[in-house]
């Protein structure tokens, strides 16, 4: 099998390779990495992972624990890292209803409106 490494193949849009769309957040969350606890900014979220800002460059594969409001501690592993920004993959994906609730409660404005559930009114 021949692997095409031409410029066209190298310029594939990374977003088109994602499993699901990233949802934008601006949510401070607590994070534990090793014995160090800190506050980081949750910048985007999918059921499978997240991007956080606020930590020095992390080692690929390093486990972190995120404390997201309304959830038990969530273990994730670093899949990419740059200075002050890291991409994480959760050890277990978020349940769809949990993910939808987080989007509804904490996502950046335009995503919150799209995810909002219908209001039930009492008779």
UniProtKB/TrEMBL annotation:
Family matches, as SUPFAM superfamilies: PilZ domain-like (SSF141371)
Protein origin, superkingdom: Bacteria
Protein name according to UniProt: PilZ domain-containing protein
Organism: Novosphingobium olei
